[in-house]
Amino acid sequence: MAEADSKTTRQEGRFGQGFLTDIWYFAALSSDLKAGKLARYEILGEPVMLGRSSRGEIFALRDICPHRAAPLSAGRIRQDASGAESVECPYHGWRFGYDGACTAIPSLVSDQAMDISRIRVRRYPVAESQGLVFVWMSSDPRGLGEPTEPPPTFPGVVGGGPKLVDQMDFDAHIDHAVVGLMDPAHGPYVHQQWWWRSSKSQHDKAKRFEPRDAGFAMVRHEPSKNSRAYVILGGEPLTEITFRLPGLRWEHVTVGRREVLSLTCLTPINGKKTRIVQIVWSDHPAFSILKPFIKVGARAFLRQDGDMVNLQNEGLKYDPALLWVDDADRQAKWYQQLKREWSASRREGRTFENPVQPAVLRWRS
């Protein structure tokens, strides 16, 4: 194995370092991207410009002009006499097609020979699905890698627009953000609102898990009796919680014919910051009647997790060894196994084989 490949393997294998590649990352809501507009994002430490053409098509390019490094997202979309569109750099007017190819350098005069077709910026494959925008982050440093699978899709009511959207940047590597998200034992200590639960209501729990795609699921079950938030839904709710690489977690709740889908998307901004976006869809009347209260509660919930991340960083800055406990931390172990298998399967050019085995996990919370 080459030295570069060996280094990449070590980074992907060590918890809290490196990123998964050759995979879709959530970037934005479709509604965030308006026709004819450009927006700057950072994903895996790379500057990514997302835009929507006048025809409504999504595209993504590296947000650095190869001339003098100005961000292309600060420019504008231009249309030539033939109707072809391109992104114009704000510094010197260099233009790039949506495929990343340079189409014009205005400062050139007619007798100056320069093959502009050899100039390109990296193009990122991008897909729009269920009102969400995903970017494929290839392991190919030239950006030539193409998606090997469609973007993830989610069950339930995702056609009528979200009822709730919240966003926060955690000062943490995505690994720490993910295991914090799936940690089943922190709730009574970090989230002690009267409408959720308290440390006094702890009891033994046993939940059944099974592998799903590039992740796993806590299979459909009745919510715990000490989870008061489900009371507002009435009836007899059933819930299923699913995790999928690289950082997608969703809870699908059914109450008779009514549904709630709560999706949390974790996207690495860089090695020390992760964006958390929570999106809720529902056809349940509670989200019309009680939406202001639900919004305040969800926002408080997310910020309590953010505060705990900041507190945890006080210890993590010393790079301590971490102690994982079965069964409460089994999901965190699965996550690390899934990451290793994803990287190995891509590196070896073979089909991903989910390492998670069906199990009943027990913990107290």
TrEMBL record:
GO terms for molecular function: 2 iron, 2 sulfur cluster binding; dioxygenase activity; metal ion binding. Keywords: 2Fe-2S, Dioxygenase, Iron, Iron-sulfur, Metal-binding, Oxidoreductase. CDD domains: Rieske_RO_Alpha_N (cd03469). Residues 25-135 form the Rieske domain. InterPro entries: Cholesterol_7-desaturase, Rieske_2Fe-2S, Rieske_2Fe-2S_sf. SUPFAM superfamilies: Bet v1-like, ISP domain. It holds the Pfam family Rieske. It comes from the Bacteria. This is Aromatic ring-hydroxylating dioxygenase subunit alpha.
